[in-house]
């Protein structure tokens, strides 16, 4: 069975062009009709005024009064009326007696006959106009009274003057004006057609010659793809305003429903992320925002060879970052165990050598002293921390610190059953704080770190102080920002530790305070949950 190929639908530009041409044509025809109607009314009003003016001038002429008193008024008035008619261009000037007897007329045959038409209030001294069909055909006429020259406040009407302009003459004038109107209408039509064509060409370029169904399908596909992508997606224009955003980006960044059209600066995002989205293009940059650790990639967006903004993709690495932190902790513990294994081998060789030398009592005393030191450290840490994961972390950090010649002491007590935070959160907080403290005291003459723990099942307070150089007020202000570090030669990935600590603290209803330690260096106080008394930090 053969199927007919589907005919490609007309483009939006072509449809708009046709509609615009129809609209322009209708407007021009309507304007032409209205202009013609207006010109017709103007011509007739002008003819009426002209007839009144001519009739009034004739009625006030002295010759009318003189001729009225002669036995044959027509002898004087007929030549006079004809000269006025020729000079003014009207079609007839009729001077008549009160009984309608004509004293003048363009057709001499009509002299002495009765005037045809209405007089209105002319016999009472009023000016009367009308459109009437007389002996010369349809005309617009004005009838003006002739008052007696006897004087007085209310002179009587002794004669009448009728002046008219035939509609044929008015139609000839209208035809002349209609030609000018048609020329103007054609000019407007040409301008309208050219304008519609230019608009159509611009619309064709912007829509790529697609029809409305193709554009609708493209939008539906784009919307489906945009919301199906598992990564967060933002499209930022050149002025830093959000133009497109999908559901995942709203979730990761906590964006409001009315985010489209708003500036990035108004959304409360980290400054580094705002700078990256606005123009600092980069791939797989890590940012900490709210409760998430995000990996963001930004690249320029182009349309028809012109840059229109930036496309930012976001991936949630919160869980991965937490697992990575735990992996780093395990690696640290492994290194510590390796170092302790090496040290234990040295001690074992010492014990063997003492026995071979025939000094078993000295060997027993040496082993006993070593066991006491190790047991004291283990007992102190286990007594301070009930959770085995956190205790193992602190034991590993203590061994690492001892290997590097650093004195690490743990005081206070943290309950083993902590309802507010998971061991992973505590490992993130303690691991990053202790690591930073170890790095801070590495170059100091006195290398000491103090860790103080206190809390309850719903509250924890972790204090880590060191004997390092400390932080200035400006450094303390930026210390919790993503990517900030005091390491001059820091590699990519540094500067996240304190940002992650701050993120955990905020998520659990607490906060981070940076101050000066009693040892002389920096002191970081992390509060998780509500403090006793109901206040949170």
Structural category is alpha+beta
Radius of gyration: 53 Å
Question: How many helix segments?
Answer: 13
Helix content: 40-55%
Q: Strand order of the main beta sheet, please?
A: 6-5-9-8-7
Strand content: 15-25%
Distance between the termini: 77 Å
Following the backbone from N to C, one meets helices and strands in this order, namely: HHHEEEEHHEEHHEEEHHHEHEEHHEE
Q: Can you tell me the residue ranges where pLDDT is under 50 for at least 5 consecutive residues?
A: 488-493
Q: Strand tally, please?
A: 14
> Quick check: average pLDDT?
77
The major β-sheet equals:
5 strands, antiparallel
Oligomerization state of this entry?
single chain
CA-based shape: rod-shaped
Quick recap of the structure?
By secondary structure, the protein is of the alpha+beta class. Helix content is 48%, strand content 21%. The strands form 3 sheets. Strands 6-5-9-8-7 form a 5-stranded antiparallel beta sheet, sandwiched between helices.
